[in-house]
């Protein structure tokens, strides 16, 4: 028997892959199947962001005189309906997993002591193990994080209604996504980033994102001294002495691997389980995948890691390759990007994206998004692409794959694009091909 600990993207996909080859697989999940992606992170952001975008579109059309009002939101109703949909999705995933032949055990903790496997208090014999126990919110060492009214993405469902003023502590993708949502809902939002805001983004993409975060107070290179309140949060005190009044605080300060139940394995100082490129841990027969092994903390990467672990358990030597895995952020538009890591000396071209579905009415305000490509001038190979447009996430999934396959900008001559579309990558790639031809003539 093979035991899989954790029913998130990595564990579930790994378990199904093994079961479909005829292996006996037992998946142990303490809560509901689907992991944080379904229950707290990805799907929650999708749900909230759809409503935020609807409100922003209505606001744009009201300002153009097309609509006469902007709808108000009921946050309690949003939370209730999100939970209902998540439960439906979880039941679908449960049925799909069982149909693949996986035995699913709920409500108990799976744990390891070296090569010894426990399900609850019972020790079981396992031929191999995949540890996919995920991650949790990192709580900064700031006084007051335990006050009522202080939330993480995991505890946000307990927030009873929209606050009037919210402080978001963090400067990354998750902080930006939640800040955007709550600002669209009418909340006064202040963001406090210890370092730079979205500092890992290309500067042009970052500038585009700041357009979507307009109206939000943003403090960069700013440290928080404490969260104040007599039992309930009332303000955030900054290191420079400034005090920001707040009815709610959202901590979006990163992730920490959940590995306390995995003993006897080599780990990094943050608790991340150390694996090689085949997802093997320091204990023979024990594999690990997903957030528990640390960054990049991406669902598609976790799914692939789970499959790679399963393949190696089956004796099929398979290596995890992170090259070209796209990343995305959801604000007013999608922000997505992918790179192969090759061709450091490439040239970058950028241009406004064409108006299309989801951006037509924004043209009145002078903005329809951004597209960008990075090209190796010696070979014409596309080595990077990014887009800030509606639908960018779908676009970059396929562009990222094509980049791994070595697509060149000349190859875009053979592509007939869909129209209308917000895809500016296609046009830029063709422009780059023409530019390189002229240079080489």
From TrEMBL:
Name the InterPro entries on file: FAD/NAD-bd_sf (IPR036188), FAD/NAD-binding_dom (IPR023753), FAD/NAD-linked_Rdtase_dimer_sf (IPR016156)
Q: Which UniProt keywords apply?
A: FAD, Flavoprotein
Q: Which SUPFAM superfamilies match?
A: FAD/NAD(P)-binding domain (SSF51905), FAD/NAD-linked reductases, dimerisation (C-terminal) domain (SSF55424)
Q: Where is the FAD/NAD(P)-binding domain?
A: 2-306
Pfam families xrefs: Pyr_redox_2
The keyword Flavoprotein is annotated on this UniProt entry? yes
The name this protein carries in UniProt is NAD(P)/FAD-dependent oxidoreductase
């Amino acid at each position: 028997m093979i035991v899989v600990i954790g029913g998130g993207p990595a564990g579930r996909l790994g378990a199904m892959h093994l079961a479909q080859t005829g292996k006996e697989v037992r998946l142990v999940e303490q809560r509901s199947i689907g992991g944080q992606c379904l229950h707290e992170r990805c799907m929650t952001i999708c749900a909230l962001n759809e409503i935020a975008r609807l409100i922003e579109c209505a606001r744009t059309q009201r300002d153009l005189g097309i609509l006469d009002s902007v709808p108000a939101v009921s946050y309690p109703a949003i939370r209730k309906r999100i939970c209902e949909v998540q439960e439906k999705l979880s039941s679908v995933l449960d049925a799909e997993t069982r149909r693949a032949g996986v035995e699913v055990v709920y409500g108990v903790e799976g744990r390891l002591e070296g090569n010894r496997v426990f399900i609850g208090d019972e020790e079981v014999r396992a031929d191999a193990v995949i540890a996919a126990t995920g991650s949790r919110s990192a709580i900064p060492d700031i006084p007051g994080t335990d006050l009522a009214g202080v939330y993480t993405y995991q505890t946000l469902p307990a927030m009873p209604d929209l606050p009037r003023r919210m402080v978001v502590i963090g400067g990354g993708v998750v902080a930006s996504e939640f800040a955007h949502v709550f600002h669209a809902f009418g909340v006064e939002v202040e963001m406090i980033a210890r370092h730079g805001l979205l500092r890992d983004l290309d500067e042009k993409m970052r500038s585009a994102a700041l357009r979507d975060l307009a109206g939000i107070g943003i403090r960069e290179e700013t440290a928080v001294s404490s969260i104040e309140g007599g039992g309930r949060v009332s303000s955030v005190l900054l290191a420079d002495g400034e005090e920001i009044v707040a009815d709610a605080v959202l901590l979006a300060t990163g992730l920490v691997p959940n590995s306390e139940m995995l003993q006897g394995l080599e780990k990094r100082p943050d608790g991340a389980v150390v694996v090689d490129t085949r997802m093997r841990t320091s204990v023979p027969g024990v594999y690990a995948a997903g957030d528990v092994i640390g960054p990049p903390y991406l669902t598609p990467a976790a799914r692939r890691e789970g499959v790679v672990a399963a393949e190696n358990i089956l004796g099929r030597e398979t290596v995890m390759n992170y090259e070209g895995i796209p990343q995305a952020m959801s604000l007013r538009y999608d922000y997505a990007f992918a790179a192969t890591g090759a061709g450091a000396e490439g040239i970058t071209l950028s241009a406004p994206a064409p108006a299309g579905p989801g951006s037509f009415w924004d043209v009145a305000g002078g903005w329809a998004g951004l597209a960008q490509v990075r090209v190796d001038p010696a070979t014409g190979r596309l080595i990077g692409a990014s887009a800030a447009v509606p639908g960018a996430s779908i676009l970059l999934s396929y562009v990222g794959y094509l980049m791994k396959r070595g697509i060149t900008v000349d190859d875009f001559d053979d592509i007939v694009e869909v129209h209308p579309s917000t895809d500016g990558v296609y046009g830029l790639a063709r422009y780059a091909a023409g530019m390189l031809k002229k240079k080489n003539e």
